[in-house]
Amino acid sequence: MIPLNSATAPSGACAPLLSVRDLTVSVKDRGVVRPLVAGLSFDLHPGETLAIAGESGSGKSITSLALMGLLPSNVSVTSGQALLDGTNLPDLPESQMRTWRGARLAMIFQEPMTSLNPVHTIGNQLTEAIRAHEPVSTSAARTTAIEALRKVRIPEPERRMKQYPHELSGGMRQRVMIAMALALRPALLIADEPTTALDVTVQREVLDLLHELQDEIGTAIILITHDMGVVAEVANRVVVMRQGRMVESAPVETLFQAPTQDYTRALLSAVPRLGAGANRAKPLPPATPIPAARLVDAQVQFDIGSNFFGRATHRVHAVEGVSFDIRRGETFGLVGESGCGKSTIAKALAGLAPHAGHIDVDGKALAGLTAQGRREICRDVQMVFQDPMAALDPRMTVGDAVTEPLVIHGIGTAAERHARAADLFARVGLTPDQMTRYPHEFSGGQRQRICVARALALKPQLIICDESVSALDVSVQSQVLELLEELQQETGVAYLFISHDMAVVENVVDRVAVMYLGQIVEIGTRDQVFGDPQHSYTKRLLDAVPIPDPSRKGRPRSQRSMDVPSPIWPIGETPTRVCLRDVGGNHFAAEEK
Description:
34% of the residues lie in helices and 24% in strands. By secondary structure, it is of the alpha/beta class. An eight-stranded mixed β-sheet has the order 16-17-18-13-19-20-23-22, sandwiched between helices. The chain has a six-stranded mixed β-sheet with strand order 6-7-8-3-9-10, sandwiched between helices. A five-stranded antiparallel β-sheet has the order 15-14-11-12-21, covered by helices on one side. Strand 17 (462-466), helix 18 and strand 18 form a beta-alpha-beta unit. The termini are far apart. The relative contact order is 0.11.
């Protein structure tokens, strides 16, 4: 048994709610038993938050699945104990474990789309979970479900109850999962990367909500995350894992101030910190007559609903009068909450969404293009998506994935395409001999590098990075961001960098625009927007960023209404356009009432 340090068993504390001792979880593959988690030990007390941190593959999620009794058929707990109120969870039969899940211990998963049933409404799934554990009527369960959705800041919860998972954004679906877990007020809550897909303001409110739940009923939380800022904000103690083993365990203040292990120090040094971007300031690329991309009064709207005659009754004003340009060789940031129109602008720039107003790429207007014109635009604009595994065909070798754009556009011979792909692999830090492998044979960071190589294959003028590093570990994230910067210096490509991680944005962009409800409310250079924010919404975004410093925990924050205005308007009505004013040096901010 691994001895516990003083941080694991505090002197004079009450009996632990959960006691994990020498837990080993192993996988049986082709007759060979291999440990995934080895000799893990820790205690968790009521009302305490324990963060389990580490990179992908360190055993964090496997530990949580072992506690929940949700391990795959070829994976099992081979030794050790996990005692919840004295009951060893791995020994419980599935029939009894089913009654404990939700009522005594609950889990918030990282990927909400695979956790929600696509053929049932949100309301049905929430009320079913509540009624499965509490003897209440359907009406009472519905009331509880609506209140849970309201607590996690979902707008119009009554309407959301009637919607299906595919009708919600990724961040919205995650909020539904959090509401489902919190509705039953469990004694132990396991949160596996619960805020990775959320905006900083929603993340802040969710973390505050978890803290309030602890204050109310003493819920203990195991927080699994790679975001060390979140760890510093909410954790009491931290367990750092690497390759299935505990590297270090300590109170959060001790871990951040005086880490004892090299791996922990490397993990902390890779964390992007708000304010560090000013130290990396460089001159803006010069403005040219023809920028890489330009938007003038761009609008993207979608009609929804129907009346008796089948005509639309409402319109989603996803993008409403947005104007900006992206200079050649520039990294332009676009930030804001889910639903503000960031990804819609990306789709419009890539020719994937119909638009009004004017959008051009490399001087070519997107409106009225022929099929051949749209094909040529695809050469000038490429995208790097958030989830590299979903962006790569699992049946295609990664070498074929990188050469596919060249094949589609009829560029070069087979030998020339292979040579081009080999050069791109070397450029993104991989080797040409890896081209014959398949996506599942690479780590998450390597897969994202492959996606970057594919985006570069056609030598585009603009690459759109839509949340391209938000799901990566901090060390891998740092490597990918450095790669993007190196490639920009080599090729002069421009980036549209879309992210909800304000600390990452500040460290990579030259200029940034802040969006709210489909409109830009502030735009300027990195130093202007991050160093001297003028709009109250920008200030709230920056105020909500987790700071990787436990001594700043509990700092005062600006309050914000839980109600978010809807971008949906009856047909014939339009939202009020904001008016941007120059506050100095081409730093523009919307006028506020």
